[in-house]
Amino acid sequence: MEQIRQLQEANEKLKTDMDLFAMPEPLPERPEGAPEPGSTQGTSAPKSSFSADVLGMEMPYLGEGETRVGFQHFDKVENEKARVEAMQVEQAARVTGVTPRPPPKYEKTEWPLSIVFVSSEVTPWSKTGGLADVCGSLPRELVKRGHRVMVVSPYYQRGTKEDQHFAGAFDTCSNAEVGLFGGSHEVGFMHQVYDGVDFVFVKHDCYERPGGIYVDLEGQAWPDNQFRYTLLSHAACEAPLKINFEGKGTYGDEVVFVANDWHAGLVPLVIASKYRQYWNTYHNARTITVIHNILHQGSEPATTFPNLGIPDDWYWCLEYQYPEHMRAHELDLGLVVNILKGAVATSDRVLTVSEGYAEEICTPLGGKGLETILTERKHRLDGVVNGIDLDEWNPAEDEFCEFPYDVSNLAGKLMNKRALQRELGFEVRDDVPLLGFIGRLDWQKGPDLIRDSIAEMMNEDVQLVMLGSGIGELEGFMQWAENTYNDKFRGWVGFNVPVAHRITAGCDILLMPSRFEPCGLNQLYAMRYGTLPIAHATGGLSDTITRHNPFAMDDPEVAVAAAIASDEAPDGNREMADLGPGTGWLFDTMDTWSFMYCVSNACKLFRENPKMWRAMQIQAMSQDLSWYHAALKWEKIFEWSKIDPPHCEINQQHEHHHHH
Ligand code: ADP
Questions:
Q1: For residue 646, which of 373, 380, 284 has the smallest C-alpha distance?
Q2: What's the whole-model pTM score?
């Protein structure tokens, strides 16, 4: 009401300002009785002509509420009233009777640890992918549990607006000298506390140049990446010993290092080969290698080994030989130093971003050459699915979506669907399933499977929107499909966060046909928004999506109980979890037949069994996808690493020998 009053005032003022109060034009009449669903903006001005004439845009742009209304009818109060009325009608019809899960209860751990994350990127200072999000979000949750957590990452200055994030970091004035590339190199440490986490940024000229994080302005990998990340790893080993945090002292040498991907992969090697073996420290430290994507291993010709600052007798940990068919020519032995291999060989534990991916990287298809050594270490290999940022992706408070909603009432979701249909220039219909795809257009994400199925899919009564950029051919396909199936297909080439949010909220179904997927975030966002995923049964996708069970009861209570059961332990109370209606569909083979089988099934269910659909939405939305939930599992991994003796502990073993 307060809001309406404010709008009323704003409206009056506007009328006065524009001298419109004398205007006799009456407001357009709405139909008698209940307002027509979809008439949320108070009028239905012909949109295509408006957008074409006034905005000169190809796509009818209808994102901003008022702009589409003819000027005479510009009345914020009427618009708002219509919106509220329509919302009320929908809301009455769409109560689920389910209360949203309360936020997690934070309890302090009884075993606080000192933890050091080492990463080449961290949100919001630097980001190219999920790795950055993990290192930005997880440490905060661990701090809430009572751990002391540091994140070590480069101090990038790349001539972009991300640079300014580093403005909050101050020089700790404790520099370190590290030995690599045949010399001694000095680095500085900048420090910023954020949500109780110590973010430490390694300062060196090699991180300060215009371009990408890993690539130059032309998109070519920086030729000195091996130097840049060798430096990061060595510097990170110094940070807990050197930096004296005001009032709290140093972290000391009993820390748990979390080395993320190959960029930080030398940390476990440096700890074992130098600090423990020669410098008699870090005996009680532990090292955990985290694999976010095994495609990148940091391999360089074996002749670069002396660069790495690792004692010679540790060469064998790093050596990797490419199989014959991958070598360049007859005389090429294919010998490289593979940093990720060295990390897997020497760290105390290995962790990936889902249990399914942990299994897959032990197979020839998924291991990308590291399957043998990973299999050897399988008893120390685990997977934990990433959490999501519950504030950034929250249907009840999404700054990019017009209509808020949560699991207790799905009216807002329907309204967002209509808004999205209008925005895209689709026919506004509640009964047609609206499908979405969001992601990089590359081989991993499988958009080619959608391309290959498009004719069959467009035979169905569906609407499909794809958002993404990448391989030119696939961008071209999206344009072609939009022309060919103009009433059913929209392709949006580009990277656009607001549109990604509106697709996630407005669609009924999210397509995620990834060939492989270490964890995957979009299916998690989708489920939180009650959008049911159809995905390839791989990696994190099969771990996080529960297949639709056609024999389940469509009872909301069963759905909630199933969600809670699958949260509690992935393989614990499977029985209850399996009694639920499920949260999506998984196809087992990467072919159009299996994919389309799921799509047709899902669309049929959508049309014919709204009650079951609702139950699936409830199960999807009732899951605990929080980082806190994930943090509790990470904590277990840390504890296990502390219980076992270190995997590489040459020095002490020798001493042990002498004593006997
Ligand atoms: P990956 O890290 O392999 O690209 P994830 O599913 O883990 O895949 O994360 C992808 C993230 O990038 C998600 O947050 C997704 O919403 C976002 N994203 C991908 N493509 C686009 C796009 N074209 N526009 C907006 N956001 C996108």
A1: 284
A2: 0.83
